Amino acid sequence: MEVSQRAKGILPSATLAITNKAKVLKSQGLDIIGFGAGEPDFDTPDNIKEAACTALKEGFTKYTATEGIIALRKAVADKLKSRNGLDYTIDEILISSGAKHSLFNAFMCLLNPGDEVLLPLPYWVSYEEQIRLCGAKVVAVNPETNLKITGDTIRRQKTSKTKLLVLNSPSNPTGVVYSKKELKDIGEAVLETGLGIISDEIYEDFTYDGIKAESIVGVIPKLKEHTIIINGVSKTYSMTGWRIGYAAGPQNIIKAMGNLQAHSTSNPTSFAQKAAVEALTGPQESVSLMCQAFCKRRDYIVKALNSISGIRCPNPSGAFYVFPDVSDLYGKTTPKGTLVNSSQSFASALLEEELVAVVPGEAFGTDQYVRLSYACDMATIKKGMERIEHFVKNLS
Ligand SMILES: Cc1ncc(COP(=O)(O)O)c(C=O)c1O
Fold this sequence. Notes:
By secondary structure, the chain is α/β, with parallel strands linked by helices. Helices cover about 40% and strands about 15% of the residues.
């Protein structure tokens, strides 16, 4: 048997690849510092776990409605109203097995082969693969300044084949957060050009320095007809393993996504849905505690990286990643004789020679950078920064 052409085209996830390699080295007893993880290091709050246990004890272990239980779709609608000021009915909401699944459903139901999708660089790895799986073409778009696109970027890049723009604020991997003004500028260009938007808002609750992440639909309500909002409980409530994400958008698209889901995965896990209801409607203190911890770590890591000669690290306003530019170090050689001339060689040498795992920027379409997740404790961050400093000092 041979795998299909479609499957042959899928590249492995570079972020998972580095995390897996680090895990293998760790299992061999090596003292690895992992900055690769895309998930909070905190435990899922107890009230959420208890809700799942109660659901299990009560026998809530069977199929549910494909589109998710009404209580969860209602909790999502209430959250969209209270947090984002948006009006969605439960028919405009689909619960899926993680936000990644919501994204996949959305691309599959919106893209025809040959359609183009504007993907601002640097972008999260899975967008590209999912879009390509639909037979559509990724048009990687360079940011203007501060790693952000503008309305004019869209006007310049739009062709007759452009169907969608993917917006991810706060961003993985850069941590940039678009302001209301910037979203308005982008939204106006979208309305002018007739594009659709996939707005991935999964990191909305992790922002710093008093900045609030806005949904583009909240900034220009007319965009509701043109936008699929993607979100979930994975990051905000440290529930990455529970696999609950959701999409909110025009009813006809949500319905099509539900039909696709009905024939692929069916409903997301029953008791995980009950836990997600508790996450969205229960106490929210854990979210602000996590956010405060991330902020302290961000402050430390940005300062530490910028104190290393040859590394320039922008100060991100959201998510839990830093995305330093390491390209000034390209052309140098490690003590073991490895030439560092790309983000891949930088990341490999750093892992092999200093046992520090970072994700090469190449995976996000930009080779000057590497991504570090600060979803790990302070002691780990400090140790990792010392090792990176040592690594850079010894380059010649
Ligand atoms: C930008 C972005 N969107 C979506 C996801 C997927 O979230 P989930 O774990 O809910 O599938 C991730 C996870 O890393 C992400 O970084």
